Amino acid sequence: MAGTRGQGADAPAPSPTRDTAPGTAIAETAGATDPRALRGAGDGIALRVIAPVMRIIEIPMLGLQRVLGINRLAWVFLLPNLLLFGLFAFLPVILNVVYATTGGDNVMLADRPGIGAGNFTRLLDCANHLDPNTCREDKFWRAVWNTVWFVTLQVGVMVGFSLLTAIVLNGKIRARGFFRSVFFFPVLLSPVVVALIWKWMLQRNGVLNAFLDWAGIGGYNWLVDAQWAFAWSVFLSVWAHMGFYTLILLAGLQAIPRDVYEAATMDRASPWRVFRRITLPLLAPTMLVVLVLALIKGVQTFDEVYAFTGGGPGTATTFIIQYIYEEGFAGSPRLFGLAAAASLLVAAVLVVLTLVQLWVNRKSVDG
Amino acid sequence: MGRTWDFLTATRGATRLHWTDWASYTYLFFGVFLMFFPVVWLVLSSFKTEADLQRYPPTFLPYQQQTVTVEGYDEPLPLFEITAGEYEGMILAQLRRVGLQAQMVDPAAPEERLRVAISDYEPVEQFSLATENYSDLFGRFSFLLYFWNSTFITVMATLIMLLTNSMAAFALSKYQFRGRTAVLLLVIGTLMIPQTVVLVPLFLIVSEMGMFNSLWGVIIPGAATPTGVFLLRQYMLTIPDEILDAARMDKASEWKIYWRIILPLSAPAIAVLAILAIMWRWNDFLWPLIVLTRSENFTLQLALNSFQGELQTQWSSLLAMTVLTLLPIAMVFMFLQQYIATGIASTGGK
Fold this sequence. Notes:
Order of helices and strands of chain A: HHHHHHHHHHHHHHH
Number of strands of chain A: 0
CATH topology of the domain at 139-366 in chain A: MetI-like fold
Helix content of chain A: over 70%
Helix content of chain B: 55-70%
CATH architecture of the largest domain in chain B: Orthogonal Bundle
Number of helices of chain B: 15
Largest sheet of chain A: none
Strand content of chain A: under 5%
Number of strands of chain B: 8
Distance between the termini of chain A: 41 Å
Structural class of chain B: alpha+beta
Largest sheet of chain B: 6 strands, antiparallel
Shape of chain A: globular
Largest interface: A-B, 130 and 121 residues
Order of helices and strands of chain B: HHHEEEEEEEEHHHHHHHHHHHH
Structural class of chain A: mainly alpha
CATH topology of the largest domain in chain B: MetI-like fold
Strand content of chain B: 5-15%
CATH superfamily of the largest domain in chain B: MetI-like
Number of domains of chain B: 2
Radius of gyration of chain B: 30 Å
Number of helices of chain A: 15
CATH architecture of the domain at 139-366 in chain A: Orthogonal Bundle
Oligomer: heterodimer
Distance between the termini of chain B: 47 Å
Radius of gyration of chain A: 26 Å
């Protein structure tokens, strides 16, 4: 054991993040102490617990190795993971289509009558798609338009503030590590905790209203007003997630070579010009990654807003995932078909976004 | 004083602070306030009594009315300071309130009953932490049960995920076999299928397997993650093949190579993934919300959500519970902040 470990330590140990564009710089900027330091301590205890289990598994594995040969043994190693993927990722996709084309409120597929594209026509049946009141499934369209608005505002505001924060943090700042982790802290909080924190801040007799009353502006019952509830949902979501994107953008900024800036200083370029002509263009690939990631997450917003407003008042903050949840699981009758059809529509959007993400990632890796 | 100021505003480059520096620091300190104040406010509020929580405008620190035990009365009596009238300046204990009048006694001379108008007194308060908010959680609410459910799900899901993902990553990084590219593409494909879009069929599969309303119904479907496989594979690719060949010479079985060589050598990547997995599972909400419908199976997140949904929100317990839910993650953050940041940024997931 000691021998192998020695060899490992001698071997070059690049960070695991080498090939992902944003990650590369992070590992360096974060000044991450080598994660290998984590090892030593837990090793002894972990080994004592794991060893007997692993030895037992070794017996059948050795048998399989004799039968299959070394290279085909790879499939045995892959098996548990592929089984899980198949059962909980690929099979559901197929079943989703089956659900979407059948009606009724039975879970069991055998009891569900096929209705073809009925669910889709029901969802998409609208006199005017811009006005949910003219739609057969008005709640679906309200959720769609809410989500569109939410994603636009949230992604716009969030990426804007993340960029600003990253630029500020990239300047000559003391205690940069501290400030960076301050902005990052809310990312780790659970959505429900985030929602409760802000609900407590914003309630009628909450601290914000106390401050506004004191300042003479006058408090307000924020979460009862549809537009304010929506605005605060955007705010809460930005508050909770911006640290993550700040981190990626900061890494992108730090990856811009210093000499480009030095050359600009030589040429007496104004700071604004430097920002416009150097920082923004060189940051563009990272910005694209951030935008696409934020869009993918934004479309799937559910947890924090659901715990924050419950989708209300009315349907003011009901988003598309909540619509799926309520049609399929919370409401009665449970319209699985409608929920599945709606989730297929969401999936289509997400697939496009993910393909863009992969394409962007590849491009920035190659570049 | 001037020197201190010079010292505080000195920058590495000898020049004084530019206005942009001032703007930067103002922005950053505003950020600190915005990010931390809500959490600080939550923690402080969680130590307030229900009565103190109702107070408007709220006080920053938790206060409780002082009480005193007076001879001849079983219950401790609340203390008031008299601000006007006959007994001005005295501190009296209140027996009961009748309309706008209060019957009071002087704790020093408990025999004589005094009548005071309630507009003439103010409660005597002192800083005091209402720790009963927390102790109540363990008694009246089944906090420990929820905590156990959350912990069980988090630990089991993390272990299963680490095992299956590292095995898959080992196969994908150290073996040359037909169909490897296909499997890699398959793994990339699962990136496009977030749980949120397959809720309905996932629900069917989980109930068919008898895992509806069982903690395993939350643990198993989340165990295989494409991010985990990628993260570990990326790291394992950097482990030189010569080590494996040497071990094979020594007649080590493939399984032994996996757990005695590959696993220990990729410990840093596994640590990062473990931290991420713990965070994902602990904070998970939508899927548990669907699978776990009975309150004895609730995770902390579900319990928090269902408490706040009740008509009469009992903020004192709710806030204390929120703090306890937040605590493990805050601890992890304090000690492992660097790894989390690295891990999250490199996988692009959270």
